[in-house]
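Hey, sorry to bother you again with one of my protein questions. A protein chain has come my way and I'm curious about its shape. It would help a lot if you went through both lines with me. I owe you a coffee for this, so here goes:
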Amino acid sequence: MHSTTTTDLSILLQNLSKTNDTHKEKVVLIKTGALNPVHRAHISNMIKAKEHLERVYGFHVIGGYLSPTHDQYVQGKLSREDFLSGYHRIRMCEEAIKEANQQHWLGVDKAECTAPKFISLSKVTLSLQMFINEVIQLEKPIRVIYVAGLDLFNRCHGMVAMREAPWNGVAVVYRSGEKESLIQSSHSISNERLFYVRDDTPENQAEAVSQISSTQIRQMIKNGQSCHNLTYQSVLDYLKTIPSPRS
């Protein structure tokens, strides 16, 4: 599924060339999802996961990817009016990464979105991990860790397979209002495949970011409300260029 046409490895190679930390385990992050549209919490969660994994576990995160989910899955979730094609969702992710000034380590992975059919998040993660290590052959393989919000971790059965896989893992980012009983019973500092990113930013600020949703943004746009604090201006500008499905 992954190839040089879908997945740009240049960021990983550049970051590897800049480091002298040869003893640290190299990690790449991936976040899948509809991203319809991408918003501030998507990128914020990737940044939080990177900082936590490096600070607490001593990993060296050499890159990360936003991976928009296949149209087949997103069309099944959304109305025709709300659905945005994979092409547009990829473009908006690219714009958001640039506006957030995270292009030195974040990119957009097109493999999932351009696959012949919907692929589960565990298979997407494993495929990326295999592809990276086929191309970049280090003495110790590069690990790909999936980044999930606490809401996804609580409801998605695929998380079980992810955290039991031989050598990847899941970084779960706290989301306000979500129950922590499952993650607290599953997580320990010695667990090598499950990492809980508990927010340490000021409570009101953390809650505001973690509560952002694409559904909320779509509704606010329909109502003519400003939502620049929820997503990026470049994303809002791009949305204005997409013809209405009714036109």
Q: What stands out?
A: The chain has one domain: 10-241. The mean pLDDT is 90.
